[in-house]
Amino acid sequence: MNINPVQLFDVESSTFTYILVADDNESAVIIDPVERHWERDLAHLERLDLKLAYVLETHAHADHVTSAGKLRELTGAQAAVPSGCGIAPAEVQLNDGDVIRFGPHDQIEVLHTPGHTAGSVSYVWRGNVFTGDTLLIDGCGRTDFQSGSSAALFDSVVGKLFALPDATRMWPGHDYKGQSVSTIGWERRHNARLTNRSKEDFGVLMAALNLPKPKLIDMAVPANQNLGLPHGA
Amino acid sequence: MNINPVQLFDVESSTFTYILVADDNESAVIIDPVERHWERDLAHLERLDLKLAYVLETHAHADHVTSAGKLRELTGAQAAVPSGCGIAPAEVQLNDGDVIRFGPHDQIEVLHTPGHTAGSVSYVWRGNVFTGDTLLIDGCGRTDFQSGSSAALFDSVVGKLFALPDATRMWPGHDYKGQSVSTIGWERRHNARLTNRSKEDFGVLMAALNLPKPKLIDMAVPANQNLGLPHGA
């Protein structure tokens, strides 16, 4: 089986957005849409003649604002988000093991993969996994703010994501090096941060990164917890 | 059916490269790879555990150099190119109606779609068409240099590409506006240059564009006619 999503990119925040098309070629979901691209993304749905069933978020982002609320308003889709992310206005609150159905046969399984944030999830669909900022290609998301935990991220990746079949295609939430897709097997064998590293060593590595505070975090997280809509809207 | 390629992007020349994976998940072809990304593209093949059967070109590009020769050397793939593009070192010279087979069941049909260049082709695979610089999303390639012809491009698009089923997903060779994929049906109904325009009107429009000469053309075309390898190599 070889079903891929449509992968879209935001140059400013290096964020990937994904459109997953059901096997009826009519119904779709979108994962992690970016506010400034709502017109681009609606145009893609129109060109491909797709009806949006769900807008999914992998977590409450700190580096960009979502268009989930706007797309929901404009398409009639439902917003489905991880229950642990404080995104109150979404009608579907997802927990580990939940299944999202769209089209006549398609289903997406929810994996709770905390670590980048406590609520972060990954989505599994037809041999693909969308890992948000939990697992990146040859890397992983930071764990030093917003309820992050290197120990939780290690357990999520090693215990849950690396347990998926090796051929599972892995689509990250960001990439900063022009990379687009990997596989679980490759990441399990070669990931620069996680392969051949104990949980303790990984904790030391992550604590030493000393990353700057994301510029937009104080604005973006509250905005994203409101699906990107103005508060009070 | 909903099989998509992996779509890769070159920011400098806004060029799309595509990896098409056969249904055995082992064999692949790559379309229009870009010289400066040969390592990125090899890494994608390695991560996805794919064996490259063919490197395909849609035409001899004027705005970037191909990595076709390099990828052929490093992977053992064959280079397959349009017969009318003067790319002599390629072992497979393609003509209209030819079929390229890879994996146990996959086949790509060659459509000769002259206009951007006299030799340009499009490739049809599993409900997708890769149109190179013939048809772009809501636009088309220029026709004012390198054996281009607005009349030929009009006939290629209206007569051949728009004759494909409406739901065919259309993947262009470039995009300059953050767009990624369209469909033949949408382009037939809405394309800003071609919809509701006669061949004569289209010729007037294209003649009036007055585009600057591509900066790299004098270097890129001869390089691409040698698969991007140094001459004499």
Automatic annotation (TrEMBL), chains A, B:
Keywords, sorted A to Z: Hydrolase, Metal-binding
Name of this protein: MBL fold metallo-hydrolase
Keyword Hydrolase on entry: yes
Keyword Acetylation in record: no
Species assigned in the record: Duganella radicis
Domain (Metallo-beta-lactamase) ranges: 14-174
Alphabetized InterPro entries for the sequence: Metallo-B-lactamas, Mito_Persulfide_Diox, POD-like_MBL-fold, RibonucZ/Hydroxyglut_hydro
Superkingdom: Bacteria
Example GO BP: hydrogen sulfide metabolic process
Entry's Gene Ontology molecular function annotations: hydrolase activity; metal ion binding; sulfur dioxygenase activity
